Structure formats: C-alpha cells, structure tokens
Amino acid sequence: MFWRKDKKQDSQAAPVGVIEPVAEKHPEPSLPPREGDRPGETWLSRLGMGLSKSSTKLGQGIADLLTKRKLDQETLDGLEELLITADLGPQTAARVIADFSQDRFGKDLDDNEIKAALSESIARILEPVAVPLAFDRRDEGPFVVLVCGVNGAGKTTTIGKIAHNLQCEGKRVAIAAGDTFRAAAVEQLKVWAERTGSVFLAKDAGSDAAAVAFEAYEAAKRQGVDVLLVDTAGRLHNKSNLMAELQKVIRVLKKHNDNLPHATLLVLDSTTGQNAHAQVETFRDMVNVTGLVVTKLDGSAKGGVVIGLADRFALPIHLIGVGEGIEDLQPFKARDFSDSLVGLQR
Amino acid sequence: MFESLGQKLGKVFTGLRGKGALKEDDVNDAMREIRVALLEADVALPVVKAFIETVKTKAIGQEVIASVTPAQQVVKIVHDALVEMLGSETAELKFTAPPSVYLMVGLQGSGKTTSTAKIARMLSEKQRKKVLMASLDVYRPAAQEQLRQLGAQTDIATLPILAGQKPAEITKRALEAGCLEGFDVVILDTAGRLAIDEEMMAEVALVRDLAKPVETLLVADAMTGQDAVNVAKAFEDKVGLSGIILTRVDGDARGGAALSMKSVTGKPVKFLGTGEKSDALEPFHPDRIAGRILGMGDVVSLVEKAIETVDQNEAEEMARKFQKGQFDFNDLLMQMRQMQKMGGVQSLVKMLPGLGEMASKLDEAGVDDKIIKRQEAIILSMTPQERSKPEILNASRKRRIAEGCGMTVQDVNKLYKQLQQMQTVMKRMKKMGMGKMAGMMQGLMNDKDKEIMAERMQAQGFKGLPGNGGDFLGANPFLKKK
C-alpha cells in the first residue's frame, strides 16, 4: 500500500503502509483567491461565449422564421426543429413548443418576444433543478463527494475545479484517486491536487477502488479535512460488472458512516445526445446519484438534453464546466442557460 | 448499440406487416416513426430529413413484388439507404513510404489516446508494422504519461517525453525518430480540442502541415448528439479528415453520430472502439451496421468471431461427440468457455438475427453471464468421473457438489437436466442426419431473416447458405468443419 501525499517539494514520501499526517495545506500562492463579484459576470460571459455559436444559430434561425407576422404552425415546426438541433430530443422539443405556443398561437410576435417566451418555457423546466451544492460538513468526518460518469465525461477535470473553488472558500480538501484502471489517471489527478493544494490520497494503479475510498476517508478524517472528493474510473452504464464495482465503493464507504457518500455526482458531457437519458437513469438507479455536473459547455454543443433530463428525473444540476481552466466551473443558472440557448441578450 | 433503433423500426414494420401493397399512407406512417427513431438515435436533423426523403421517394409507388410483404420491401429500402449513407465498403488504413504518419484528432474525452494505442497494437500484431506513438497533448495533465503507459502495456514504442516542448517540436522529433529508427507508422495523438477554438485548430493544422499525415482520423464518441455534424464539419474544413473512428460502441448509445458524420464529411467510419482494453477495436463494415440498425443482427461478425476464437481441434472433437450423441459435463464446460471467449451470451444474442429484442428481455430478466459462471462453478465442483459419466450423479454426490460450489442441490439438478436435454436433442439430430439440420435451422428463421442473411453472406463471400445444402453451420463450434 503506497499512499502518496505529494504536494509541496518539501513533503517526504510516506513510508509504506502508513498514512502520514499531512502538513497544513494552503492554496498555491499562484492562484489568486476568488473575488466575490466574479461569478455572475464570468459565468454569463463564458457561457455566452461557449454557447455563442448555438445562440447565433438559433437566434438567426428564429429571425429567419419570422418572415410572417403571425405565429403559425409552420413557424412552430421550425422552432421545434431548432430545439431538436440543440439536442432536446424530439419528445422534449415537442413539449416545450406545446407549452410555448399555448396562448400565443396566431398572435403577432417579434423576434425578441419569441426568444424571451421560448427561454421562459425552458427556464420553467430548469429552475427547479438549478440547485447549488453546499459542501458543508454534516458530521464529524469530511463531506464526501463521489464523482462518477462514463469515460471521457470530464470527471477528473471537474474534481480539480471543485477542489480549487473549495480551497478558495477556505476549505481543506482531499482528493482520492479512485480511478485505478486507466493508464496515468492517478498521475493526472495528482497534478490537479498539486495545482489546488489539496491532500492527495492514492494507491497503486490496479488497486481496488473501494479500498482506496475506504482508506481515503480514514486518512481525510484523521487529518481534519473538510471535503473529500473521490474520483472513480469512467464506466459505461450498461456494463453491469463496472456498475457493481461502483456500488461496492459506496457499500464500503458506508461501513464508516451510513450517510456516506454525502453527495454522488454524475458528470455528463454536454456533447452527449439522447443517450444521456440512459446514463442518468442507470446511474441514478444503481448508485443513487444526487446531482449532475454538465461539462464542456464552452463548445458548440448546446447541452439541450439537460432540459429533458430535468423534466424526467428532476435531479439537481449543481455545476457546469465551461472551459479547461481551473476556474471554469460555475453554478448552474436556469435563466442564463435558457437565454443563451435561444440567443437572447438581456 | 444500434439495437434500440432496430427495435423501434421493428415496431414500425410490425404495423406495416400483413398489408398487401405499399400505399402512401403506410409509408408516411412508417417514415414519421423512422424520423423520431432516428432523431432519438441522435442522427442530426438535416441528415434525418435527407434520409427520409430518399427512402420515401423510393418506397412510394413501388410495385409490390409477389411473395414479399410490404414490410420486407420497406425494410430493404431503408436498409439499402442506410448502407449507402454509411458508405458502401470497408475502408482500410492507407500506408505511404515509411514512416506513414497518422494524426488523431477530436474533442476532449472522445477517446483519442486509447484509440491510438488500439490502432498501434492492431497494426503491430496483425500487420507486423513497427509503430511509434507520440503524444502531442501538452495541456491535459499526465496525457503524455498515459500514452507512455499504454505503450509499455502493449509493447509499442513511444516517443520519449521531453517536458516543455510544443506540439510542433514534438511532431518534428517524432518524424525524425520515425525515419531514423525505421518505423513503418508514426501515430501522433493530439490534445482534445473544441472545434470552435480557433487557436487550437490552427495548432493542429500546423502539425498537419509539418507531418503530412496519410491518415487524419477524427475520433468521436458514439454517444455524441446533434453536435456531431458541427464537429465533423469543422475538423474536415480546418484539418481535413481521411476517416472517422467511432468510440464507446460497446455502450448502449444508438450511434446516430456515425450516420451524421459520415454524411456531412463524406469520410468513412474506419473503426469502432468496443471496449476499454487495447484490443477492443473492430473494423467498420457499413453493411453489417446497417443490418444492426435494422435489428437484423450481425451474423457475419458472429461467424468471424467464432472462427477467430474457437479452437479448430476442439470443435472437431466436439462435432464427433455430437454425432455419436455423447455429450457430458466436460463438453458442456468447454462449450461454456467458448461462449465466454466469444463475448458471452449477451453479445452473442445481440448479433443473431431477430434476437435483438430478446437481448433486452434477457437484460430485464437478469440473465447474464453470471449464470454461466455459476454453472461453470457447479461443473468444477465435480470429480472427473462425474464429469464424464453424468449418470452416476446421486443424491449424496449432488449434495457434495452443491456445497462445493456454494449453490443448492436444485441448481445442480437444473444443470443436469439441461445436459440431458442436450443429449436428447443430439440423439435426435443423429437420427435426422446432418443434412436435415440445416433444414431445421431454416425452419427457425422467418423469411425476412433468410433474405437479409442470404444477401449478407453473399456479400461477404460465404458460399453456403442454410437451405442451399451449404455449410453455413460449419462455423458453428459444435459441428464438424468440412
């Protein structure tokens, strides 16, 4: 059992089989503490930037559709197709359009009014799930977050960003390297731990992920850490053996405390299409996911699938990833998302 | 992954079945369903529209051929249109004078590094190429280390990592090493990038100009949604592609992205990533995938897999026993293990025509490969004598076996009964003779399956067909190969 707790150059390698108490960690000096007024603006502009392509496309599409004055069936069909191209899926798109056209059918509406109304319909679906996650201790141990998802969704990067945010809030964070399968996954996470000044807890590649989580909790608790983030290997939801492995991680964590993990986050890639439904359903049923993180929203993908997800599963969407930088993780805001999606500038 | 779409279309055509002629209303109904199914399968909207138009014009007004149902006719039309859309033949990798340079591009997390290692391993193992892998990903933490580790695992050379080098510098170094050290192929694994990130797209264009790759492969996730068209188009415009690798095909995404990207770039899907291990890479056969989309199963893949994994001698031995009507627990054990080598019950069922829906039922019923594992455990708890002479099993032996494998006596009984049933079937087969076997097989399939299968087999150069007195069943592990 080789536990590593590298962060600063002066830290010594832990002796075999011993989990060393780790010296007080502070955020790296090179990382400026977050200014209080940042999130609002940054979030909007970043998402705006990310969604700009889709916004202009949708916005332009809406403008093109409005050659006629009255909102007729043809316009509605066009709007529905625009939503489909934003990955809402045929069913959700039809529902949003039905909601939107109620009371408006046959009326005179201009470009901006249509956008605002469409955004309103979408925001109404998203508002109940736009719930921030409070990383506050609930018992004597650290607040434990298990992060899971399919391969390549962005779990490790998300953990790095969450750790950074928490460190900036003055919380002490530990990261456990539960991806013991993929080549260099541990090394990748270690870099993030170093960048964010988090305690890094890992075992050799190939070890049992459940054992990593179990021992990481012990170590994190002993060291008085506030939040423990547990990374897991990417797994496709239809692989029953891999899902069983994830269930084992949770089962083993519960041996410490029945409330563990306090949160189980599913990381979803916004480029994912309708398969996101199957992902959320399976992960929710198998490992009791408590909330979602939607990543890669800075690309041209619109992430419209979350609207259908919100409607169907009502799972909170806590955070969104809008870039590769350490600060590119933002709380999810329904209105901003829906405005950006339809290309509305307020 | 395409089964779900196949199921949906299956339902559409059940509605069409039994009607006498291809009326416009029927076709329109079917097309509406196909449109929704394709959209739910993440095929991009413009592609769906074009596809529907093609199929509709082809279908309406077609003369109804006697002895074929309208459903079969529409299936054929949809199938052909899908094949056409996916590309008409298998695309092989190209080579130049050594070293041939391959460039891997794609979004973040699409599976570039894993695919790089898979292609390298395939080239080195199946085509005896000397391959060098180099990671140009200087952004994601430990990305270069990941490729290095994969190289070490698969025994493929990787370019030594020099910290602080830019992608262009690494490219030059890789090309130099490729020339000097006599590599046949140099694979450049680039960092994931967003198609709308001008700076990063310019960077990969620079690498392309330096390396002049013979293959530029876009690695894309089978789960990708509508954005697949934008991504594929952007990479095609700014970098230029020679092909596409579709990853995570082992998931349950319906993979409409494959159709979208193919039709928007015109570039073939060359490979499918079908697992996390470095040998989980399959060539893409458009006609097979179209068949799978339609839920017709993937018989050719099944046959190839069987040939690849089943030991010829074992199969012949088994066939001899079959013919004698002898079949004991040793044979059952061997059979189970072969089945697992071929990917387990689930994947076998999914590949068989007409059984696409059964696969999901198996899922629901909780039938999975664990059952086989348990049955294996039962057999392993038997003495050699018991295995070869099942009839000596008595109550006390059964109890001992059950305890030995942690199962109940009922489970042991169940397995014994299964064996007896197989023996009965075999004895019957022996009476009928092998010739009638094929006839029996034929009886199990409906006309649609036969038609599709016949077409498929011919396309793949299989001469024999069930019913033609041929030897399709020769690929069956339990029958003697002629």
Automatic annotation (TrEMBL), chain A:
Residues engaged in binding GTP: 149-156, 231-235, 295-298
InterPro entries with a match to the protein in the record: AAA+_ATPase, P-loop_NTPase, Signal_recog_particl_SRP54_hlx, SR_rcpt_FtsY, SRP/SRP_N, SRP54_GTPase_dom, SRP54_N_sf
Compositional bias segments (type: Basic and acidic residues): 22-40
GO biological process: SRP-dependent cotranslational protein targeting to membrane
UniProt keyword Disulfide bond present: no
Record GO terms (molecular function): GTP binding; GTPase activity; signal recognition particle binding
Primary location class: membrane
UniProt-annotated location(s): Cell membrane; Cytoplasm
Keywords: Cell membrane, Cytoplasm, GTP-binding, Hydrolase, Membrane, Nucleotide-binding, Receptor
Chain positions covered by the region annotation Disordered: 1-45
Catalytic activity, reaction form: GTP + H2O = GDP + phosphate + H(+)
Top-level class of the enzyme under EC nomenclature: hydrolase
Membrane topology note: Peripheral membrane protein
GO CC annotation, single: cytoplasm
E.C. number: 3.6.5.4
SMART domains registered for this protein in UniProt: AAA, SRP54, SRP54_N
Matching SUPFAM superfamilies: Domain of the SRP/SRP receptor G-proteins (SSF47364), P-loop containing nucleoside triphosphate hydrolases (SSF52540)
Classification via NCBIfam families: ftsY
HAMAP family linked to this entry: FtsY (MF_00920)
Similarity annotation: Belongs to the GTP-binding SRP family. FtsY subfamily.
Reported function: Involved in targeting and insertion of nascent membrane proteins into the cytoplasmic membrane. Acts as a receptor for the complex formed by the signal recognition particle (SRP) and the ribosome-nascent chain (RNC).
Protein name as it appears in the record: Signal recognition particle receptor FtsY
Organism: Micavibrio aeruginosavorus
Gene: ftsY
Automatic annotation (TrEMBL), chain B:
Residues that bind GTP: 106-113, 189-193, 247-250
CDD domains membership: SRP_G
Record EC number: 3.6.5.4
UniProt catalytic activity: GTP + H2O = GDP + phosphate + H(+)
Keywords: Cytoplasm, GTP-binding, Hydrolase, Nucleotide-binding, Ribonucleoprotein, RNA-binding, Signal recognition particle
Subcellular location: Cytoplasm
GO biological process annotation, one example: SRP-dependent cotranslational protein targeting to membrane
Domain SRP54-type proteins GTP-binding: 268-281
Listed Pfam families: SRP54, SRP54_N, SRP_SPB
Gene Ontology CC annotations of this record: signal recognition particle
Enzyme class label: hydrolase
Matching HAMAP family: SRP54
Function: Involved in targeting and insertion of nascent membrane proteins into the cytoplasmic membrane. Binds to the hydrophobic signal sequence of the ribosome-nascent chain (RNC) as it emerges from the ribosomes. The SRP-RNC complex is then targeted to the cytoplasmic membrane where it interacts with the SRP receptor FtsY.
NCBIfam families: ffh (TIGR00959)
Name of the protein this chain belongs to: Signal recognition particle protein
Species: Micavibrio aeruginosavorus
Upper lineage: Bacteria, Pseudomonadati, Bdellovibrionota, Bdellovibrionia, Bdellovibrionales
Gene (UniProt): ffh
